[in-house]
Write a structure and sequence with these properties.
With 653 residues, the protein is mainly alpha-helical. The chain has two domains: 172 residues, no CATH class; 332 residues, no CATH class. 74% of the residues lie in helices and 0% in strands. It contains 31 helices and no strands.
């Protein structure tokens, strides 16, 4: 008589494991027999009437069944071995953290195989083909192949589904207490978040691949599905970029404080942006044309005309006030393009406006992508000062280069310059806020007004600094006095007013008149009956654009960061990162509610992406035990999303 087998320190029941092994073996034997119940088609048979794929699958099934037979026989005959085996599995589940991944993996595998079986064992597969009829022909062929695969290998597929279900039940039955602990320590939530990040990315990919009108149903959505006709070598460039990026990101994350890592990261960002130019087929010329052929090329044409710079700036209203695009910008928009044109003419003088325009945009195609990633060390330094963790400082910079809109909108100042300007002033304001005084606020306000000369998009900066100052007072009271904060905010306003006077006197710049003129022109694009109607329209359209072009995983991480920040303030345990997070949320909501733009925010809100990367990185680093895995996981999702947006949609001006 076999002696009773006790658990003896293991959550996994030896009796339950014996039953699992025996049941799996019986099912495997049945699957092996059913696999060869019908011969292959005569034209494909290789041996004994069966095709090579059928024989290979049968051999694999036989090997698995043989392994199960050995395990089952050993388990039933040797209780001591079974007990030791249970202890090893128990250690894998608990000590090595395999419990939650194994549970989700077995559950998802069962769901997938069950749905696959339901569809391809019935006439549902033909209904699926009817639905796919308007899509590319390869989707119909793929459905035929999957139906044929189930007809030949259905027994093995059903066996795999049964094994995954039995594994799930075994885990749930034996680890009830451990699951309660995993819920308390957040492990289950993290796994759900990983699945949700992957699931939303898959949804986005499906919309693009199957060319669904999901987002085009949103009023005002202008990003139509326009697939590119790419050749195999162009796909090959992306594959090479993809694996190179993963290798370099792993290297950078293994040495996050190294200056070499930062240089490699800048080069990687440049390489990704330029790489998509080569995937498009023209290299730097493709990057040039993305701007030069857009409706926004008027800024470069204006610079190519070589106007007297001071006259162009001081008489901007009379020169460009009625222009469809220049008329919506402040005079500073000319400065980067004029500077680029001066350098291009110095290198290669040209007599005609057309030649100067070409050389200006050609030089910009090489230089602007590099200029865009000069903010990475600034972002890392800002992160380090904000969090006090040097080993984490590079993480936001790694995530920043993975935003689809950062990679796919080259040569536009919204991507190449404005995020850097915004971050520089915000970083300076952050230092001033550590010890808030009037003159610190004055400098912040003056700097904020200066960058406002380049773009009205950056108008959000001054309210951003003021709201952050208020939240910092709320976070640190009573140690930080209301008087200190009020003086700082007064300094911000005084600095902005002082520069307003300086610009009015020396540059003839009337910001109020220019802003009113710009947005009178801008508002003609949209006509709404009420303010509420415009807000509702902007909320849906702007958030959808920001989410799809930033990546749904980023949005999920941002929502978690905002939730934690609110919770920290409620519990009076908030840090500087929490106050900055809530400031971002407040300003983003205000932009949607009171901003003058409905649509195209994947470009216009690019100045916010460094902060989005900062907040997302703070949550992403907690997702896996080895934080490198979290960033590699995000890199895979973001790069595939970028490639699919590029292939099926892309940015066009």
């Amino acid at each position: 008589m076999e002696p009773p087998v006790l658990k003896q320190g293991t959550s996994l029941s030896p009796r339950g494991l014996k039953l699992w092994l025996a049941l799996a073996l019986v099912e495997g034997a049945a699957a092996f027999i059913l696999l060869f119940a019908q011969p292959s088609e005569s034209g494909r048979s290789l041996l004994l009437g069966y095709s090579l794929p059928r024989l290979a699958l049968g051999l694999a099934a036989l090997l698995v069944a043989a392994a199960l037979e050995w395990l089952a026989r050993r388990a039933w005959k040797d209780p001591a071995w079974l007990r030791a085996f249970c202890l090893r599995l128990d250690a894998l589940m608990k000590a090595q953290g395999g419990l939650v991944p194994a549970t989700f993996a077995s559950g998802l595998l069962f769901l997938f195989l069950a749905v696959f079986t339901l569809v391809f064992s019935s006439r549902l597969s033909y209904r699926l083909q009817d639905w796919l009829f308007t899509y590319p022909a390869w989707t119909l062929h793929a459905t035929d192949l999957m139906r044929a695969a189930f007809q030949r290998a259905g027994a093995v597929i059903v066996w795999a589904a049964a094994l995954s279900l039995q594994t799930l039940l075994l885990i749930l039955w034996n680890y009830t207490e451990e699951f309660k602990e995993k819920w308390r320590d957040g492990s289950i939530f993290k796994m759900l978040l990983i699945l949700l990040m992957a699931g939303l990315s898959l949804f986005h990919w499906a919309v693009l691949i199957f060319q669904r009108k999901t987002f085009m149903l949103i009023p005002g959505w202008k990003w139509y599905i326009t697939p590119k006709d790419l050749q195999p070598n162009q796909y090959g460039i992306f594959v090479a970029l993809f694996f190179l990026a993963l290798i370099l990101i792993h290297f950078i994350l293994s040495r996050p404080t190294s200056q070499r890592s930062m240089l490699i990261l800048i080069a990687l960002g440049y390489g990704l942006q330029v790489g998509f130019g080569f995937i498009a087929g023209g290299g730097f010329e493709s990057i040039r044309l993305k701007y030069a052929d857009s409706v926004f090329n008027g800024y470069a044409w204006a610079a190519a005309e070589q106007p007297p710079l001071y006259d162009a700036l001081t008489h901007y209203e009379s020169r460009y006030g009625t222009d469809r695009y220049l008329g919506t910008k402040p005079p500073g928009i000319l400065l980067p393009y004029v500077a680029t044109e001066k350098v291009a003419s110095l290198l290669s003088p040209s007599a005609s406006v057309e030649e100067r325009f070409y050389k200006l945009t050609k030089l910009a195609a090489y230089v602007y992508p590099l200029m865009a990633f000069l903010l990475l060390p600034v972002l890392a330094r800002f992160s380090r000062r904000l969090t006090g963790k040097p080993e984490d400082a590079t993480l936001p910079a790694v995530l920043y280069i993975l935003f689809p809109n950062v990679i796919l909108i080259p040569m536009f100042l919204d991507q190449a310059l404005y995020p850097l300007l915004f971050l520089l002033v915000l970083a300076g304001s952050s230092r001033a806020l550590e010890r808030p005084v009037f003159w610190g606020g004055f400098l912040a306000g003056a700097a904020g007004y200066i960058i406002l000369y380049f773009s009205f998009s950056l108008l959000a900066l001054l309210p951003f600094v003021i709201v952050w100052a208020g939240l910092e007072w709320l976070r640190e009271r009573p140690q930080r006095s209301l008087r200190q904060t009020a003086l700082f905010i007064l300094g911000v306003l005084a600095g902005a007013v002082a520069l307003l006077v300086v610009f009015r006197l020396f540059l003839n710049y009337d910001i109020a008149a220019r802003y009113a003129s710009a947005f009178a022109n801008h508002r003609t694009t949209w006509q709404f009956a009420t303010w509420q109607e415009r807000v509702k329209h902007g909320f849906v359209l702007n958030n959808a654009e920001f989410a799809t072009w930033s990546g749904f995983p980023i949005i999920l991480l941002l929502l978690i960061r905002f939730t934690k920040a609110v919770s920290a303030f409620i519990r009076r345990q908030a840090g500087r990162l929490d106050s900055l997070s809530l400031t971002f949320l407040v300003i983003f909501v205000l932009l949607v509610a009171f901003g003058q733009t409905n649509g195209e925010v994947q470009r216009l809100y690019l100045f916010l992406t460094p902060l989005a990367a900062l907040f997302s990185a703070e949550e992403l680093k907690l997702l896996f035990k080895d934080r490198r895995n979290g960033f590699l996981f995000a890199a895979v999702l973001q790069l595939i999303t970028t490639a699919l947006i590029f292939h099926f949609q892309d940015f066009y001006g």
